[in-house]
Amino acid sequence: MKPDRFNITGLALAVAIGGFLLGFDANVISGAGPFIQKYFALDGEAGSLQYGWAVSCLGWGAMAGNLSAGVLSDRYGRRAVLRLTAVLFLGSALLAATATGFTLFVLARICGGVAVGAAILTAPVYIAEIAPAGRRGSLVSLNQLMIVIGISASSFSNFLLLDSGADNWRWMLGVQALPALLFLLMLGTVPESPRWLLGKGRDPQALDVLGSLHGKAAAQHELAQIRASLDAAPTASRWRSVFGRRLRFVLLFAVGIAFFQQITGINAIFYYLPTIFASAGNGLSSAFAQAAVVGLVNVGMTFVAIRLIDRLGRRPLLIVGISGMTVALLSIAWAFHAAQFANAAQPVVNAPLVLCAIVVFVACFAISLGPVMWVMLAEIFPNEQRAAAISLVGFWNSLVSATVTMVFPWELQRFGPAGTFLAYGLMALAGLLFVAAWAPETKGKTLEELEGTLMRAANG
């Protein structure tokens, strides 16, 4: 029996629908936000913090999803957690679209955040655990591709629904129920992760799944590798062993790259993109259209990342991408600073420069920190600690994201766009230095080979 490559790709795409929902749910607020702000009368300085809370509460919910995903997926399986996220996405979309009170709206968005936090960790882990070593980077990146397609789809959906009446924000949020239902149905075709099955002592089932994915001969060899890895794992609890010396190097690297992925402002920029373009002097309709264009760039460059990640490797993409992000963020800061310096009473911002710099920033993020971080997190941790470690790192990533998103409106009022984007640019520069010093190369190796190499590095 020969490996069925289409089957592996098909399974990865089915699981990656969760990524589409994640991207759609996270970005849809960028269009619905101004109308939600008006509907719930979130005015003044206190209102700006409430508005920041309404936008960022998805991220706070994601932290609960991050922490619970590892425990639940270790106990009940990767597939069960993915099914739960589909139900939560569906319920959140319907509840947020029909909410009449601010508290109920926030609770609905937090519910969606739990789904986001669980899906963003579980999907890449599942794909990494079924993928052959030579295609793992591109297959795991399919999840990131679906995330950015979801972001782009929500931008276009927001633009198309902009003139649908006073309740346009309800339609923007509610349309997500359709792909959520599709995701739930598609998960019926997905088998359980063979590595999870082996961890539960269900070797015959694991061998069947591996055989259907990689062929019988390769399945026997891979099963032996996974079993040896599990047998060699420490006997301490998963959570305790995550903080042990054995995982010290990979945990520090994972926490660092998760920090820099969000502290550079990617989610703040996406969630408030129409607001940023409007502050540069564009009308509301033009700002929404430009946000949709940025979404397309994000999708296109993610295809480039998928093409290159298993050819060039992870480190080169990170270094090139973060370098471009740094230049782009500092250019945005300069555009707003130059306008204020030239005419403090009525600054005129170089809008084309802001648009081009944001496009460059998003393009560089899409080939580097966007997909590469999640690919590497799914690769660098040992089988036994993978789910628990990624839950911990994902929680940290969501905490940074939610904090950056929540304070962004306040930052704009307090420091202005120039100061805000200058801070992001300096953080990107720090991230570049971190990656150059710490990032390992993981392309072309099995998960078990990486475990041996990285654990030796931690103890060497």
Give the SSE string.
HHHHHHHHHHHHHHHHHHHH
Extended strand count: 0
Structural class by sheet pairing and helices: mainly alpha
What is the rounded distance between the termini?
Answer: 41 Å
Mean pLDDT: 84
Task: Give a short account of the largest sheet.
Answer: none
CATH architecture call: Up-down Bundle
Shape: globular
- Give the helix level as a range of percent: over 70%
Rg, alpha carbons:
22 Å
The number of distinct structural domains comes to: 1
CATH superfamily: MFS general substrate transporter like domains
Number of helices, where a helix is a run of at least 4 consecutive DSSP H or I residues: 20
CATH topology: Growth Hormone, Chain: A
Note poorly predicted spans. Answer: 1-6
> DSSP strand (E) fraction?
under 5%
CATH top level assignment? Mainly Alpha
Folded structure, characterized:
The protein has 460 residues and is mostly helical. The protein has one domain: MFS general substrate transporter like domains (Growth Hormone, Chain: A, Up-down Bundle), CATH 1.20.1250.20. The protein is 82% helix and 0% strand. α1 runs parallel beside α3 and α1 runs parallel beside α5. The chain is globular and about 65 Å long. The N terminus is likely disordered.
Key features of this structure:
single chain, about 450 residues, mainly alpha, Growth Hormone, Chain: A, 20 helices, about 80% helix, about 0% strand, disordered N terminus
Brief characterization of the structure:
This protein has 460 residues and is mainly α.
